[in-house]
């Protein structure tokens, strides 16, 4: 059964040797399962242009959550294009093992491991200061670290862990690295910040009445989706904030990929959808493309999936108010202020 289903994407791909018409692409997207699974990737990849070999030479990119899954695949993809990559991990030993795997695939690649818990604002500050001290310029930052919590826990600083990992830590890291990202930006080559969000954000409006998720029954899935929505709006807000510095900011969702995180956090989903899940490379493809391709360097504040801009709401009237967007910015600024 598994073999039959996994062969299907290849069949789809060989039947579609031409780029997918936009309408068909949009329909796949709205139907979710075909768009988010391997089928969607297989159908769309005929329209993907190969990224130029060595196209990332001379560029330094920082990737968080790089020890497994999509983060590790992103590092492999960027290293394969000649980028110098810093793998930000929580556990040095796991990070070094992931680095060995990258080097096995790309011998001689410039890949290093750095330890930082992105949910800890103090650790983010420490790490960013260290980067500013040793790097004249950074050209890319990928906020990939993510968590689907099973119970409500707080960081040492008193923030709910999902909010801290997906929103507060990345916000602070981006702002703290601003000087080196600005230094990395050239007149025709902006520095690039990418948020790896999730299609789950479509299920959640922007809500700021209980950002630390203290009220009501705890649901890890609901908090995950809510913070993913925050990431997408935050990418738009940071895009405006950083535009004058030659830094573009994008968000994306990877579809559904077979990673350790999915197997561990969503065992039922993993079992049922297993044969349809993307590989980690397929899930990470758009992240690598957002760092490497010309097109996303010409825009900012866009939400992407499979190398195409996607709507951030199914219904335009569901879009968040300017007041809610401003409240998200205020929350991020005040929660990450140095005390
Ligand atoms: N796979 C999918 O289908 C899918 C779909 C939508 C969105 N995503 C998102 O894509 C990203 C990558 O996920 P994945 O599927 O590749 O899962 P994964 O294998 O569990 O990778 C998540 C990575 O984030 C790291 N991480 C978690 N909390 C961290 C923290 N506080 N500081 C630093 N690193 C931290 C983990 O490090 P440890 O090794 O130390 O735990 C791990 O390396 C996540 O943000 C995930 O939510 C994935």
TrEMBL record:
It comes from the Bacteria. SUPFAM superfamilies: NAD(P)-binding Rossmann-fold domains. PANTHER family: DEHYDROGENASE/REDUCTASE SDR FAMILY MEMBER 12, DEHYDROGENASE_REDUCTASE SDR FAMILY MEMBER 12. It comes from Actinomycetospora cinnamomea. It holds the Pfam family adh_short. Gene3D superfamilies: NAD(P)-binding Rossmann-like Domain. This is NAD(P)-dependent dehydrogenase (Short-subunit alcohol dehydrogenase family).
